[in-house]
Structures are given as structure tokens and as C-alpha cells.
Structure of 7628_t:CDS:1:
Amino acid sequence: MSLLSSIEWFTWFTYVAILPVCSLFGWLMLPFVFVASITANIFVSIRLLRDFTCYMTDNLISNLSQPGNDMNDNNGIDEMFASTREALEDIFPKASNKDIERYERQINEADDLDPVLIIVGNQNWINQNTYATYQAVMTAFATNNLQNNQRRDEGSLGVFHFQNMTELYTVRDNIRGLYPNAFFDRNAQPQQEPIGTAWILVKVGVRSSDYAVDSSFFVI
Ligand SMILES: *[C@@H]1O[C@H](CO)[C@@H](O)[C@H](O)[C@H]1NC(C)=O
Ligand SMILES: *[C@@H]1O[C@H](CO)[C@@H](O)[C@H](O)[C@H]1NC(C)=O
């Protein structure tokens, strides 16, 4: 059609003709400016409509050619792993939406593949040992091996972000030395319940996580 697109012609025309003429003739040009403004709106609407149609068509073609796949090319991570939100809802079935969102934000800040330890408190243990003692043990998980009042739990006392698995299990062993009665000991008399259930979660994608309960975490 031409070397310039309609929009470019229109912009050029605005600066070269419309604006100078407007300045010269002032309010006499008002009707013309009005028409120009409507024309500009029509141009932009047509363009947006066309782009939107292309987007929908691409999406449909991609859906037809790869049934079950979405548009994101993330090597199927979304299908192999649960979303972090689903993982948290599974781990904390009783938590409020607000708490889940808070934990999710905390985990989303971690780097991919960083291990996250999640401890769900055991109410029987808390009843026997007081909530203050429970908090002391969780604070130990949050601060052990860190310097200068740093914490790995952002104050959550339940979601602990580690650099790697070695660090995670080193801290667990340290806490076992400091608070042995937080752990379940088969041979102890009387029997002592574990302080909670430990889950290990690894962030594998933007919002995806691999996770599992570690049933021997709190066993001596
Ligand atoms: C294509 O699939 C995605 C997710 O599978 C869906 O969100 C989207 O609406 C689908 N698009 C069309 C045009 O069917
Ligand atoms: C794990 O992280 C700690 C602390 O950042 C670091 O000192 C250690 O070398 C790391 N170990 C491995 C196996 O990456």
C-alpha cells in the first residue's frame, strides 16, 4: 500500500499539517480536530482488535496441536509437579488463605532448587511441653548456624529456607543435640511424641514445587 503504515502517515500528517494549521486558525479548526481524534481512535481500535484476534487464533492452534499443553514452554514442569499453592494447601489443610498466601510469597522468593523445610506442629507435643518451648525449638530451626540475628523463616516459625540439603540436615542434627525431647525416640520410656511433622519442599519452577513428608526427620 505505502512505505509508511497508516498510523505513521497519520502521525506525520498530524505534526506537519494538523498542528500548524490549528495554531494558525485556532478555534476555526475545532471541527477538524474533532474528526481527527475520532479517526485516531478508530485506527487504534482496529489495530487492537486485529492483534487480539491473532493472539486468540495462535492460542487455539497451539491448543489443537498440543492437547493438554499450555502456551508456556517450560518443559512440562507444570504437569509434572504441583503448584506451590497446592503443595501448601496439602501440607497445611487447616491454615487460612492469608497464611497460605504468606508462605507462598516466602517460598516464591527462594531460588529454584533451594530446599525449604516446613514444620507442622503436633498439638499433643505443644500441650505437654508448652507453646513457649515449641516456639523456642522453632526459633532454633530459624537461627541455628546463622550469624547476626539472621533468620531463615522470615518470622513464620514454620517455613524455613535453606541454601542446600547439607545445611538443612546439619541444622536438624544440631537441634537434635539441643532439644532431644522434640524428637521421637523408639526406646524412650515414657514414649515422647515428635514436635511436629516435617515436609521437605523444593521449588522447581516459577510457581511449582516438588514436596514430600520426611517421616524420619523427627526420629532419633
Ligand atoms: C488454550 O489452552 C489454555 C490452557 O490450556 C487456555 O487457558 C486457553 O483459554 C485456551 N485457548 C483457547 C483459544 O482455547
Ligand atoms: C551448603 O551451604 C552452605 C552455607 O551456604 C555452604 O557453606 C556449603 O558449602 C554448601 N554445601 C554444599 C554441599 O553445597
Summary: The pocket of 2-acetamido-2-deoxy-beta-D-glucopyranose (ligand 2) is lined by residues 163-164, 166-167 (CB under 6 Å). The longest helix spans residues 30-65. The first strand starts at residue 82 and ends at 83.
